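Milestone 3.1: sequence recovery, worked example.
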């Protein structure tokens, strides 16, 4: 079977074209798994899987400026702000299986604060992509720095990776923890310790 070569980087496609290309690809995958796409249980699966993959990777359609949409407010507050236990659902870029967990984010404002829901939306934007947890952690921290130029940012992510649970080593209780500390969170141990203590309370 001759396979059409598709350039993977920065593909610009109409949403309906993208979904149809994904549908055809999933149909091919099912066929190569030695099953019958025409049997009742699978006949709509390529279409459903294509829709699901578009949702799983919808973060590629977002950008930081549009996401924040002006929700930056002048505020004379210079103590730590923390939003913790933000659910994360992402896809491991190595195996295209999920990793699931939670993010804890803290920052110290420098005369500007960000709308709290926007912090969760930043997490959503970067997690709804093909990812590795290490990069995801840093992208979230960097975006918050760009958004409000705080005195510092701390991000901790805890996640369970299905590539370690469903395949390979198959360790169902393994949890991966990553952190990114920027500016005062990296430079000042007391600030870092306060953040780490508060996210565990």
């Amino acid at each position: 079977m001759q396979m059409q070569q598709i350039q993977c980087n920065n593909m610009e496609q109409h949403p309906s074209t993208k979904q149809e290309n994904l549908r055809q690809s999933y149909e091919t995958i099912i066929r190569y798994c030695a099953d019958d796409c025409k049997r009742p249980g699978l006949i709509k699966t390529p279409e459903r899987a294509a829709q699901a993959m578009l949702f799983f990777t919808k973060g590629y359609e977002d950008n930081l400026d549009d996401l924040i949409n002006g929700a930056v407010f002048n505020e004379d507050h210079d103590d730590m702000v923390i939003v913790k236990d933000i659910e994360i659902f992402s896809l491991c870029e190595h195996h295209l299986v999920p990793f699931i967990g939670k993010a804890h984010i803290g920052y110290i404002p420098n005369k500007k604060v960000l709308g709290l829901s926007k912090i969760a939306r930043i997490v959503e934007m970067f997690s709804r992509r093909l990812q590795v947890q290490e990069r995801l952690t840093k992208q979230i921290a960097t975006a918050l720095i760009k958004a409000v130029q705080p005195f510092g940012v701390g991000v901790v992510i805890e996640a369970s990776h299905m590539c370690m649970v469903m395949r390979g080593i198959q360790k169902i209780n393994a949890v991966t923890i990553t952190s990114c500390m920027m500016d005062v969170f990296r430079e000042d141990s007391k600030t870092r310790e306060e953040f780490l203590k508060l996210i565990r309370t």
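The chain is about 40% helix and 25% strand. The radius of gyration is 20 Å.
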